[in-house]
Amino acid sequence: MTGQQINIKEGYLTIIHEASKILSKKNTLNESLKEILKILYSYWDAPISFMALYDDQTGKLKIVESFGMTKKEASKGIFKKGEGVVGSIFKNEVPAVIYDIKSNPKYLNKTRITKRIGSELVFLGVPIKVGGEKFGVLCTYKEKTRTFSHDDAIKMLSTLATLIGLTKKMYERMEEERKFWQEEKEILLTTISKEAIALNDIIGVSNAISNLKKILLKVAVADSTILITGESGTGKSLIAKTVHKLSPRRDKPFATINCAAIPENLLESELFGYEKGAFTGATSRKRGKFELANGGTLFLDEIGDMPLSLQAKLLNVLQDKEISRLGSELTVPVNVRIIAATNKNIEKLISLGNFREDLYYRLNVIPISVPPLRERREDIPLLIDYFLKKFNKIYKKRISIKKDAIRAMVKYKWGGNIRELENTIERLVIMNDDDIKLNDLPTYIKENTTDTDFQQQDNGLKDVPMTIENIEKQQIQEALKKTGYVKSKTARLLGYTIRQLDYRIKKYGIKIQKL
């Protein structure tokens, strides 16, 4: 073999290598095809080339990408099976070489490029196929030279066409999978009830949270007033929103007002609205929260801080289902479900004369108590994971938390409950660029852990990794029930691949029920 032949074959290997790199990139199929045609020009001096792919709907081959051709020329490149050289290559799956493209009757010249090229160009075409599947045809025009060997050229082009065929098949499978998962998503969204979606906002698998979710499902369908009690930071507003989402009023407004954050004179106008001229500065009529929430739900947060004078008015609204704007004698009927919340002991406020007993009984038709975080420690790892993902996304980081840090956080009493935990995780994500370790935690968390209390309420939390696994197992079991034990739907719901889900099902020994 001469040195010149070796160089030619090395050039062919270079073309295949460069094409492989293009096909391995995350381009669209057409972008990849266009780049490959450029490679044939750059490394092989092929001034004109094109790819024609078969369209199942039209039953024809059509040029989808070209190099060295005008748009008008490429647009005319449409061939039936067996029509001309291109159609014959596709139909018979046999390469073709034509030296006399201007006089050969098999060359139909549909693109009309022979008008501007010389007779020195050779036409070469190979089928793009993989196994028994045909996708199209790869064609090039190459200048005749003494060293040109159409046998070697066809071998190189055929190898290139095979790579293109494999890539085309991969793209088709990816598109099929995309459509499949899109359909699965749509089915999942219609299969999973609104109740399940709403309850997913409440994070936790402890008995306390499981019981709370059951209560919410029962009380949401009723229209009675609800009084939510619990320490500050336990998520009382989230509970109120969840009740609204679960209720028949879910498509109506949800309005909220903090009774402790607004001065008494402003609180009244915020609740009931006012007429133009009702007081200095009232230049136009304004609707209050009751009217804005008409048909829906009004959440009165920190109801224990509502002034006595307004408590009487609120009681009248609950009894008569109507309000009067400030500065008006007219009444406006309202249809609003009231959900109130407080972190104070209302019965103690009643004994001190700071809260009306009759209003308390009106509000406390359905009492809901939200447990503090220290009473559901098994939920802490899950909450840590949730907030970590949230703030990693916000601050564009990929930080995780070491096991010893999780253990310390589980043992800490969290006087500020979930709000304190959330703020702590946000601060840790901001301040750290590497994984969060025990030493990264605030001193008060490392030093103020209560081993005695923790051991009394341990419930198997001595081994934090084991706890997380138990939580994950329970999540998978619940998701399987929600989706009727359909693995594809369950994996989509949990954010796993099918393989990841199967691994966990096997790992935890979860039994799949046949419905």
Question: What is the CATH homology-level superfamily of the largest domain?
Answer: GAF domain
Structural class: alpha/beta
Counted up, domains total 4
Using the coordinates shown, work out and report the CATH topology of the largest domain. Answer: Beta-Lactamase
Gist of the model:
The protein has 515 residues and is α/β, with parallel strands linked by helices.
Structure description:
By secondary structure, the chain is α/β, with parallel strands linked by helices. It has 4 domains: 3-177, 2-Layer Sandwich (Beta-Lactamase); 198-371, Rossmann fold, CATH 3.40.50.300; 374-462, Helicase, Ruva Protein, domain 3; 464-515, Homeodomain-like (Arc Repressor Mutant, subunit A), CATH 1.10.10. Helix content is 49%, strand content 14%. The chain has 21 helices and 13 strands. The chain has a 6-stranded antiparallel beta sheet with strand order 3-2-1-6-5-4, with helices on both faces. The protein has a 5-stranded parallel beta sheet with strand order 8-9-12-7-13. The protein has a two-stranded antiparallel ribbon with strand order 10-11. Strand 10 (322-323) and strand 11 form a beta hairpin. The longest helix is centred in the first third of the chain and has 42 residues, at 150-191. It is elongated.
